[in-house]
Structures are given as C-alpha cells and as structure tokens.
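User: I'm preparing a small set of examples for a lab meeting where we compare how different chains pack in three dimensions. I only have the primary sequence for this one, and I'd like the structure in token form so I can line it up with the others. Please keep the answer compact; I'll paste it straight into my notes.
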Amino acid sequence: MQITSPKNSLLQDVRKAAMSGRRTDDGLVVAEGPHLLGEALRGAWSIEHVLVTENSRLHLSELLSGVQADVIEVSERAFEATSATQAHQGVITLLRPRQWSWADLMRIDGIVVVLDGIQDPGNGGTIIRSAEAFGASGVVFLRGSVHVANGKLLRAAAGSAFRIPIIENITAESLLSEAKKHGLTLYALSAAGGGRLSDVDLTQPAALVLGSEGAGISPLIARSAMSVRIPVENVESLNVGVAGSIALFEAARQRSLNEPV
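Assistant: Understood. Below is the structure token output for the 261-residue chain.
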C-alpha cells in the first residue's frame, strides 16, 4: 500500500496534529525522524503506524524490522506536504501514549516533577529528559503548560517521554489533593527568596514545582509550597530547563547518600 495524495485523510490529520503540537483526532502522537522511532521501540507507548518514504524504507530496513505495526509507504511529494519539519527524514511514527496514573508516579525513591504553566517545548522536553536521567518518578503537566505531543518537546526529550510516567492537563487543585493524599512536600523553585535548595531535605516524598519564566509559580501552588532557590552569581535567574535539571541532580545526589553501601 502506498499513499500518494497529500489530501489523504490520515496524512491531513497527521499534518494538523504536527503543526498544532497536539494529538491527532484519534488521540495519537506524531513523532518525526528515525531517532524517535528507535526510542519508541524501547518505550512504554504503543506504536500504531509508521509512515515512510520509499527511500527511507530501504535505508531504515533494519530499524523498521522491529516494528510490530502497520508500515505505510508514502510518496515523497505527499510526505513533504505532511511533515512539520523543513528537512524531513522520511519517517513519521504515530504513537498512542501510555495512560499513567497518580499511583505510577508515587515512588518513595523518586521525586515528582511538576510543570506549572511552562509553555516552551524545548524547556519542557529538557525537563522530561533530566527527570528520567536523575531518577524522578514522573512528570506532571498542569493545565496551561505545553502539550507532551508537541514535536519540539519530543525531540528535546529525546525518547524520555516514551518511558517516564507523565500525566498532563492536571488542575492545581488536583495536584494539591494528590500531594496531600500521598504525603508529598511541595518545593517551588524560585529565582529569588526562599531557602537554598541544597539545605532542604529532598530524600523524603516530594514534588518539585517549576514555573514559567514569565509568570512563575501560580498563586494557589505557591501558597502551599516551600520556596527554594539555586544560588547564582552575576545573573538574575537561570533558564527553567537548566534550573530544573540542577534541582533534579541535587535530589538525586541527596538520595544517593542515603543508599546502603
């Protein structure tokens, strides 16, 4: 089977989703490029379809051999009209995200990361990647944050989004309720004010809240969280992706000190 028309309904749905940074009408996430296909093959999401050009099907035959889903060939012209990137790599993977629950995030040996209004997809992806790298138990996207389906976020996360537990579109009220239920201490990372990050105990059940660089932490969350800061010199603040990564490293460092030798 080969799709040759850019007006094909599947391709139009994929194009709309890729350009908007949201899921398709069928709830699938669009991931472009062979690297993300390779990461998806070892992730927790379900691969539903893979779209490839004839040339990519030949060059990526070994990678595609591991796909247990429909591999659909698309003409070069139709693929170019579908891709959201300027220089496409001839492969688009359509994935159905795993449905994670709060219970999946509540590991006593991990820290929950909360994105509060972070809309930049590069920062969102960086935080997800750092969360996996430093042993966080999961990532929560509050309403108003970037969508996990955003292509730039998926590229910045470099496959981590397919593995680490993520829940999104969560209200502040729901976060506070779950934090209370599971005994999580909320730490809100702030550019100014609050205690030093290295002085607080991050070995206990906790959630690290990261706000947008413009608006910061939302008032409802701020009233229930302990403000913490990363000491810096000569600069007013750090990029939230960088700050979040540093905070996650500190949590991992403290927790490693408690591990039995």
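A couple of notes for your slides: The chain is about 35% helix and 20% strand. The longest strand covers residues 46-52.

User: Perfect, thanks.
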